[in-house]
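Input for the complex:
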Amino acid sequence: MRPLSIVVRTGCDLFAWFLVIFGSTIIIHGDVTPGGGFQGGAIVATFLSLLLVAYGGKKLLAWANIGIFNGMLVFGLLVFFLLGFMGFPHSFFFNFLAVPHEIAQATGHGVIPPSGTIALMDIAVGLEVAGGLSLIVLSMFKGVRLFREEHFEEESGHDR
Amino acid sequence: MKKTIFVVAAILLGAFVIGATDSVQLFGDPGKAPMDDYFIANALQHRSSENVVTSIVFDYRGFDTIGEAAVLFTALCAITAFFREGRKRP
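Predicted:
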């Protein structure tokens, strides 16, 4: 995939990290505002797609580290399952960290939001979805590249 | 022998399914919805999550979310296996 023109690349420079911040906001505030882990994770994963479209595959594959996304995926899944299992003396997926609303309003916020495991699971699932979708984009692009011929043309933008 | 067991099991399953249709709600008849009322009334008080949808997805119906996470993971495994780098053709 060839890189696009300098207009697109400058737009990508401007907006790419804002996508990550926007997605992270949606993930972190999943228990108080609309959205949550799945939606925010999907927004974060668009970061990689935007880079792939704007900068081309060669630059992206040199830059992107698959281990990071793999780690995000595995860490999110493990934290999600662990939080589900930690409620086990009561039941699977019991919210053992939740503080009832009246007490939470009276005493103010702590480090963990009063919704307990809901907020933590939001973050875990957000990490998992972001890592998983980014991995899907990367591995599909790599796989599509395999079907081409061995000799690649040197990538060059439209403006060069 | 296997066929007999299979036929008996199929007849039993069919009988259970037909019997279970008695207690299914009719179409166009919402009837009572005790779960909805319980969530709307108590989700904020018990879980203090202002987004009731999230409290349902990650708390009351956590099994459902495990299924969704498994779907994503399975899709990723399938895509990675399908697009893996194999040996080069001679």
